[in-house]
């Protein structure tokens, strides 16, 4: 079984960080809220031009799930099941290549179009997570196909196109859920940037000492997540960790801090999530992040003006995505939100 790229660390360093911070990142090793159920939204019929009522119903469900959970699953989303399986298999094929082959892509430079490493925040976060990560840029400056690993090149290109289309649709529904015109989020470039990350979680011999991904909220606008059948993803809802069940053919949608709180002015609340480590595996998670943080853009984002009033004044100062992401990355993955730094 290939070792995770934390083998680039000493085993002693990795274990010490995990031991020191286990209680911070593992308040409970099991789900505590079996009475809760993550919303599952069926997008079937959304593309019917003769059924505006159906679209309103779906947008309303998206809005409700965004306000109460911030996480929901979607089915009948338009991406074929075969494509979902192929992207998992393709990325698994990369991670299970010989270590010497993968090392050619190993880097900690966030500006590289293709990145392979373990723990982007290794030197800033309080804990080392048990995972390897592959990342590539999709938009607005897509990675050249010849720079992608051959074992997953074709499916990365295909999956990227499918996710970009789905993301733009979700931003339309989210805009409508806020009472805005459907194109609002796309018009302010929420869907302009897209990065795909594949996370590889090998079996962990001592899962009680670490996490596959420690609890955090991401720094992008929107995340579309495909999880392996083994599962392990949890969200923090009403102070309890809730399992996100694996629904065949479904994708998990997470509204992240930058969108949910800063832009909506706290109408949508951010939510912590994590991935448990276990001795089963390996597991593949494919996360598609809509974010422009790695681009040298000067566009300012703040609470949407159409949502503000005398009774609902802005709660956050305007900032560029670049500055927000830089602060987030320097802080590292943790349960402490980066958003507090931008409150008025």
TrEMBL record:
Q: What would be one Pfam family of this protein?
A: 2OG-FeII_Oxy
Entry keyword Cell cycle: no
Highest taxon listed in the record's lineage:
Eukaryota
What InterPro entries is this protein classified in?
DIOX_N, IPNS-like_FE2OG_OXY, IPNS-like_sf, Oxoglu/Fe-dep_dioxygenase_dom
Compositional bias, Basic and acidic residues, is annotated for 14-23
List required co-factors.
Answer: Fe cation
Q: Which PROSITE patterns match?
A: FE2OG_OXY (PS51471)
Q: Where is this region: Disordered?
A: 1-32
Q: Which UniProt keywords apply?
A: Iron, Metal-binding, Oxidoreductase
Molecular-function annotations in GO? dioxygenase activity; metal ion binding
Fe2OG dioxygenase domain residues are 190-293
Into which family does the record put it? Belongs to the iron/ascorbate-dependent oxidoreductase family.
Q: What is this protein called?
A: Fe2OG dioxygenase domain-containing protein
């Amino acid at each position: 079984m290939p070792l995770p790229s934390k083998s680039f660390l000493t085993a002693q360093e990795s274990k010490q960080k995990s031991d020191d911070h286990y209680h911070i990142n593992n308040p409970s090793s099991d789900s505590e809220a079996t009475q809760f159920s993550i919303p599952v939204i069926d997008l079937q019929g959304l593309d019917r031009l003769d059924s505006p009522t159906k679209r309103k119903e779906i947008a309303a469900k998206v809005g409700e799930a965004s306000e109460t959970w911030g996480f929901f699953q979607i089915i009948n989303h338009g991406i074929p099941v075969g494509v979902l399986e192929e992207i998992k298999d393709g990325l698994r094929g990369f991670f299970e290549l010989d270590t010497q082959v993968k090392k050619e892509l190993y880097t900690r430079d966030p500006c590289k179009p293709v990145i392979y490493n373990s723990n982007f925040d290794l030197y800033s976060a309080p804990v080392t997570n048990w995972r390897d990560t592959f990342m590539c840029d999709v938009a607005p400056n897509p990675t050249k196909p010849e720079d992608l690993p051959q074992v997953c090149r074709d499916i990365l290109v295909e999956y990227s196109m499918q996710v970009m289309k789905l993301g733009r649709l979700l931003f339309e529904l989210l805009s409508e859920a806020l009472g805005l015109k459907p194109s609002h989020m796309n018009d302010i470039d929420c869907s302009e940037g897209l990065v795909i990350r594949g996370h590889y979680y090998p079996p962990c011999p001592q899962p009680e000492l670490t996490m596959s991904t420690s609890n955090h909220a991401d720094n992008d606008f929107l995340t579309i997540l495909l999880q392996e059948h083994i599962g392990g993803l949890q969200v923090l809802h009403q102070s309890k960790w809730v399992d996100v069940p694996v629904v065949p053919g479904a994708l998990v949608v997470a509204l992240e801090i930058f969108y949910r709180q800063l832009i909506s002015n706290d109408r949508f609340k951010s939510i912590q999530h994590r991935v448990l480590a276990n001795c089963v595996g390996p597991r593949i998670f494919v996360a598609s992040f809509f974010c422009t943080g790695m681009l040298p853009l000067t566009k300012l984002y703040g609470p949407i003006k159409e949502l503000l009033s005398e009774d609902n004044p802005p709660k956050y100062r305007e900032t560029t995505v670049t500055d927000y992401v830089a602060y987030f990355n320097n802080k590292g993955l943790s349960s402490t939100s980066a958003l507090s730094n931008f409150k008025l």
